[in-house]
Amino acid sequence: MASTENTENGVKKIGILIEFENDKIKKANYGVITAARGAGHELYALVTDAEGVHCKAQLQAYGIQKIVLISLKKVSLEQNPVRQAKAIIKAMGHFGIYTLCGLTSPQGKDLLPRIAAAIDAPLVMDCLHVNFADGIAQKPQFSGKTIADIKVRGTHHIFGIRPNAIEAVSAPCRADVIPFEAHVDSKRLKIKEIKPGVSGTANLSEADIIISGGRAMRNTKNYKVLYDCAQVLNAAVGASRVAVDAGWVPHAMQVGQTGATVNPKLYIACGISGSVQHFAGMKTAGVIVAINIDPDANMMRNCDYGIVGDLFEIVPILTRHLMEIPEINQ
Ligand SMILES: Cc1cc2nc3c(=O)[nH]c(=O)nc-3n(C[C@H](O)[C@H](O)[C@H](O)COP(=O)(O)OP(=O)(O)OC[C@H]3O[C@@H](n4cnc5c(N)ncnc54)[C@H](O)[C@@H]3O)c2cc1C
Hints:
Blueprint: E1 12-17, E2 20-21, E3 24-25, H1 28-36, E4 41-47, H2 56-61, E5 66-72, H3 81-95, E6 99-103, H4 106-119, E7 123-127, E8 129-131, E9 136-141, E10 146-151, E11 157-161, E12 176-182, E13 209-213, H5 224-233, E14 236-239, H6 241-245, E15 266-270, H7 276-282, E16 287-292, H8 298-301, E17 305-308, H9 311-323
Helix pairs in contact: 3-4, 5-9
Bound molecules: flavin-adenine dinucleotide.
The site of flavin-adenine dinucleotide has 26 residues, from helix 6, helix 7, strand 16 and helix 9.
């Protein structure tokens, strides 16, 4: 896989790790594809999910030129990150791909570092923007207090992009579908059983709207008020760490420095004070609404719209009013 230029005859081949959920392509992939487009870039969708066979139309609508369907003989690639990482490395070598990008999602956090370590490539995760031509990524640091420009060196570059950080813009083209069979093993990791965890509602990182509850929720049962509102808004439900540590909701719902980093169009924080660690996970939301009894809470001072009052009174009223809006209930 040797190249000094990170390009082949002036063409930069960029591999994009495509993620699926419930047999459907995640829409956050389209932002990553949009970010990778550029003059002289050839975009390769690297697909390890069997559902990839059906995703040609969606991928070429966003500018993917080659769809590489990676498979293994006999064994399944899915669910085994060691096998997946090795197979992706083989595909990168085969197609002359020196730059790889994907989502900073649970799957991306598992696969991209494995690949970077195996090929000794620099890795930048949680990027808000990437200049692929110069190998410069922008990422938040110190819980989002500063944004760093990070320049990567070497021939291979790997970037994980924050879900929804880059708006997806379509750019239709024609894609070739290329089956690629990798011969890899996984002696160091054998998956014996997979027990799906209990997740709250829709995937947080994919959601356009999130309504979150913190310490003020007081118990698991009280989250119903948020679920009811979420159902009307087609939103996901999130939580602060206090609520997760208390066992009221699963960790999959935690937003913040040690939870999910989210980037919805609308974030509604209910009874959440707005610690620096919570903000680290949601400060890039398009619009932030806070509902809090304390007008001086940090979340109230740093939101777009603040509603002072008891969430258990306000959220049901909000839900009722939203239900009366025909556009929302179509
Ligand atoms: C290393 C580290 C990592 C961390 N990672 C995370 C993380 O990923 N995510 C995270 O969230 N935290 C994280 N924390 C914890 C963080 O510091 C805060 O303790 C936590 O975010 C506070 O949660 P909270 O806002 O729900 O609770 P509190 O700070 O107690 O705030 C509760 C708020 O609810 C309001 N309130 C009370 N009753 C009502 C009511 N009836 N209606 C409306 N408002 C009401 C109060 O006025 C208050 O503002 C981390 C901490 C550390 C040290």
